[in-house]
Amino acid sequence: MMLKGPVEWALHCCAILSGLQQGRYLATKDLAEFHGIPKEYLSKALQNLSKASILETSLGPRGGYRLAKLPDKITFLDIVEAVEGRHSTFVCTEIRKNNPCRETNIPDTGPCAVARVMWEADEAWRAHLKSVLLSDLLEAVKNEVSEELLLKSRAWISERP
Amino acid sequence: MMLKGPVEWALHCCAILSGLQQGRYLATKDLAEFHGIPKEYLSKALQNLSKASILETSLGPRGGYRLAKLPDKITFLDIVEAVEGRHSTFVCTEIRKNNPCRETNIPDTGPCAVARVMWEADEAWRAHLKSVLLSDLLEAVKNEVSEELLLKSRAWISERP
DNA sequence: ATATTAAGGATATACATTATCCTTAATTGT
DNA sequence: ACAATTAAGGATAATGTATATCCTTAATAT
Fold first, then answer.
1. Residue B57 in contact with residue B26, Cβ under 8 Å?
2. d(CA B32, CA B98)
3. Which of B35, B45, B108, B112 is most buried, taking the most CB atoms under 10 A from its CB?
C-alpha cells in the first residue's frame, strides 16, 4: 500500500487530534469535514494510523479517534510510514545481473553501488522525518496561525456531538 | 515527466559511458542490450540526460552517447533530476484552506508547517544525492566487481562497431 | 432497541508509468 | 550522391498504482 495525498491528511489530522479534550474522540466524519476531504478514503489512512498504534479508537456514538501517545512521542516518520508504508523511493531491479559478460553463477554480493547510494539518500530523508516530533509541529502551527482561528477551530471541534 | 525505473538505468548507463575510450560514442541499442532493458524506453531517459547536458550525442553510424563532462563533475542528483524531474515527493494541497472556521480572505502566509517539514526531508534527500559524484560510484564499482568481469565488460563495449 | 461508529472487503474511476511504434533529420562511410 | 545508421521526438497503447466509493459486520453508548 503506497498512499500520497493521505499522508498530508494524516499529518493534519494528528495535529487536530492533539488539541482534543481529555477523554474525547473525534469521528472520521468530523475530521473529513474539517479538512474538506473524502471521508471514506480518509478512513483508510486513519485505520493505518490505528494499526500502527499512533491513534486509538472507540466504536459507537461519541466514538472516533484520539492520539494513543503524547505528541512528543510521535515523529513525522511514524505517521508517514504508517500511511505510506516503508517502501523506499528507489527500487533496485538488479540490472547488473543482465550483463552479458557475467557468469550466471556469481554469488550475490550485497546491494549494488548504485542502490546503496540511492538508499542512503532515502535514509537521510527518513532521518529528518524522524527528527521532527508532532509536538514540534504544534509549536510551529501556534506561531503561524492567528489566535482567533485557533480558538474558533477548537470551538468547532468541541461542538461536535 | 516522472520516471522511476529509468533512473536506475540512467545511473548504470552513465557508469558504463565513463569507461568509454576517448572520442567514442555508444549507441542506445548497445546500452539497452548490455543492461537487458527496452531500447525505446531507455532512449527517453538518455534524451533527458542529453537535454541536461550530462551526455552529448552524435548521429549516424558510430554515433550514440558519451559523457559531456568528467565523472567528478557529475553528481547523482544531476542524473536523477534530469530523468525524474524536480518534483518533490510531497505535494501540499493546502487543505488548511478548507478549514470551515477560516475567513476566506486570509492572505497567504507561505507554506504550511506540515509542508515545510516534508520539504526539508526532500531537501535532505537531495543533499545526499548531490554529495555523491559519478566518480565516487566508479570507485565503488571497482571495489565490488571482479577484475575479470570489469575487463570482459570493457572488451564487450569496445567490440561494438 | 436504536443510532452511531470503526474495520475492512470489494469494486470502480482516474491518473501516471511503462512500453512500443513510427517519422524526421543528421551523420558516416562507400 | 547514396545507403545505412543513429538520436530526437510525437503519437499511442498497455499496464499498474493511486484515488475514491460502496457496502457489510461488529462493537458501543444512550
1. no
2. 49
3. B45
Strands B64-67 and A55-58: unpaired
Q: Which of B37, B76, B99, B119 to mutate to test the interface with A (most CBs of A within 10 A)?
A: B99
pLDDT in tens, A56-99: 999 999 999 999 999 999 999 999 999 999 989 999 999 999 99
Whether the CB-CB separation of A2 and A84 falls below 8 Å is answered with yes
CA distances from B109 to A100, A141, A146 (A): 56, 12, 11
Protein-covered nucleotides on strand D (Cβ within 7 A): 4-10, 17-23, 26-30
Measure CB to CB from residue B98 to each of A15, A35, A140 and give the nearest one: A35
Q: Is A43 left (phi over 0), alpha (psi -120 to 50) or beta?
A: alpha
Angle between helices B28-35 and B147-158 (to 10 degrees): 150
How are beta strands A64-67 and A55-58 bridged, if at all?
antiparallel
